[in-house]
Each structure stands twice: as C-alpha cells, then as structure tokens.
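EI: anyone free to look at a 270-residue chain?
SC: sure, send it
EI:
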Amino acid sequence: MTIVVGADGSVASRAALTWAIDRARSTGEDLVLATVVDDGWGTVGGSALAELKGAAERGSEREVEFVRGLAPDLEVSTHLAVGSPMLALAEAARDAALVAVGTHKVGYFHGHALGSRSLQLAAVSTTPTVVVPVTSWRGRSGVAVGVSEGTDSDEAVRFAAREAKRLGEALVIVHSDGDEERPAPAERAASLAAAVHPDVSIEQRSTADPASGTLIGVSRRAVLTVTGRRGADGRGFLPLGRTNSDLLMNLAGPVVVVPAESSAAASSAA
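SC: here you go
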C-alpha cells in the first residue's frame, strides 16, 4: 500500500510529509508525492501551463531529496496532475492506504471558511484523509477516536485501534451526545476495537459537551485524533458533517477522517 502526500514544498506540506515518513518507516508503506498544477478550471493558457508543470516537476524532485535525506530506505515516487488540486489529489489516492495534507490552521477559527482545502479533500476522498498541522509533537499521548450512534464511526474505530497498537498508545474513545448516562456507543466502539487488537489499552470518555468542541480539545493532547465520516448517500454525495468541519478548521494535532465506506481502510486491516 501507499501513502499519498500533497507535496508543494511549503512548510505545511513538509509537516504532512514528515508525518507520512514516520508512519511509512513503521508500516513499510511506499510514499507517493503528489503535486497538482492548478489550471484554474481550464483557464490557464498552454504556454503558462507548460511553465507551471516544469516548475512543479522541479519542486517534486526537491521533495524527493527531502524524503531521501530523512529516510533513504523508503520507496518514494512522484505523481504530477493538472486540475483542481483537491479533486486531483483525491483521485490520485483512490487506491492508497492514506492521503495526507498539511495545514497552517491551528487554534480557533471564528466563522465559516468554506474554501479550506483540507475540508474539500476530506469531503471528496474515498480514502482516509490525514490533515497535519504545523505544530509541536512533544508531550502528546493516546490515539483518540470520536464515536457516534449507528455505524458511521465503525471504520474510524477500527482504524484508530490499529494506530494505537502500532504506536504503542492507549486508545481513547470519546462519545458526546448530551447525556452522560448513555455510554452505549462508547461501549460498542470498545468492543469493535478489542476485536481488532484485544491487547490495546482502551479508555472511554463520555461528555455532555458538543462533539466538535470536545474533539478540538482532544486534538491538542493526542498523538492522533480519528473521526468518521458518513458514507455516500443515494445521490453520490459524501457529507463531511458539522463536527468534522469544525474539527478540521480548529485542529491542534494530526486528524484522520475515515469514510464509513473505505476500501483502503478495510484492506489495511488484513
């Protein structure tokens, strides 16, 4: 399997790339550095587009050298696409284990920002999407997963259990429904996680606080925060949901959004 990383040489991109290198070292996955030339929905002229593609190719080679400088034994390749960046990146990662992007967004954002590219990617990707902020990794512990009623978070729980096992961290199951006396979703999630890795240490936390605020706070302390996303409806839409949107706009640590129907997530369980 591969990890596809949105690579453009920026500080945010390097944060995602460093995260992906660390994961690939432990999983044996290959890295694909994906660079997308934004053609402005076909409005960029031929000569300008050729120049942009040349610059992107040179930038891709610099990112390959960055990877080889940190992890010379990793298999790394490049992928160059032209089009809408997040749509092209989602397509490049269709058969990957993960797709990772970086972000400068750390801390609370007031209002709506519908143009956030990490939100766009998480909403259209059929592969688990990792959003990595430019922030400190020190003092973090635990892999947290937000759970809800029903089955929408099941793949997220399984993914989080595998990550907790891989990282040697406790799995922290967080449930928020406004009623601390109803821990059933957290208990069900604990059973799912135990079925994946019986020896993973599991903690359950139920809270009456809003789910988004709870997960934002958790992301400040966790090594990784995992959340689920509903599967496509009958019209083909892939809803992200308010909780995930708020979390991605205010995250303070790496966050993974796992689609309910994710072939990559399922295959990585094998």
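EI: The radius of gyration is 18 Å.
SC: 👍
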